[in-house]
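[job 4417] fold queue: 2 targets
>>> target A
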Amino acid sequence: MSESILVRIARGDRAAVRDCLDRHGGLVWSIARRLCPDPADAEDAVQEVFIDLWSAAPRYDPDVAAESTFVAMIARRRLIDRRRRASRRPDHSPLPETLAAPPHEGPDAVERRDEADRAARALGGLDEGQRLVLTLSIYHGLTYDEIARRTGLPPGTVKTHARRGLIRLRSRLAAPHPEPPERA
């Protein structure tokens, strides 16, 4: 029986690197394509997997597992880690500055506009975290998880900001309307 490719890599045999790519490239690529829907991302992931394999080669023990099993395990772990990191990355896509309001016709339009202005002022009076979470939820329809991904905040913090912000909004909106100042 010939010596394992990973054992040869661990010893520093440069020819073993090419042999490893030839023998296990298809296996790693198939795992990457299954776990990375984007082909360009899969290619990057395959390169990372092989870099990990070079550094993990000294840990390979042919008495414990087959070489292909060891390679598949390293590939799967790397790809799962990569997916987890990608899901934690905040989305930095820009939000629109203003939202187009649907036209409100009829006798209640002025009253609705006044209430909307009052609600917007109350929202503007919240602290930054609460205002951001509620704006993304109310105006953009994002879920707590989507807000967490977009802002980089933990989901629990997003829920806390939403709850506390809504409590503050409710109390501000329940307060009587302040009278406009008299003009001289």
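>>> target B
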Amino acid sequence: MSKPKDTGRKSDGTFAPGNTLGGRPPGSRNKTTLAIEALLEGEHEALTRAAIGKALEGDTTALRLCLDRLAPPRKDSPVSFGLPQIKTAEDAVTASSALLAAVAAGEVTPDEAGRVMSLLTAHKALVETCDLEARISALETKK
């Protein structure tokens, strides 16, 4: 029986750490990226000025490009609404009810609520774990 061929890959198909049998060397760059950078060499300022000029003339595409670079759309924003302090698992249920009420009132979007709910769920698990540890410690000291 022959030994399987070593390809330098893990069982999931990705390259294993320290692999020397394949893959792109660290720090190497895509040929297309290098070609584009060579074409744009020294032209960045002129191209930027041209885009700004077009935007000022009313070209909406150029205007959008300039604004996207100056003030990119926010990917996340703070959510502000009242939540009770969470010290017990019951408090987490109360907090999730308050979150659902905020969604129903239109104070929080469903997407924002989903992200906050995942935080509440994680915090509830931590509270429960801490509570269990305290109970186990109390039982062990009784012995």
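[job 4417] complete. Note on B: The chain is about 60% helix and 0% strand.
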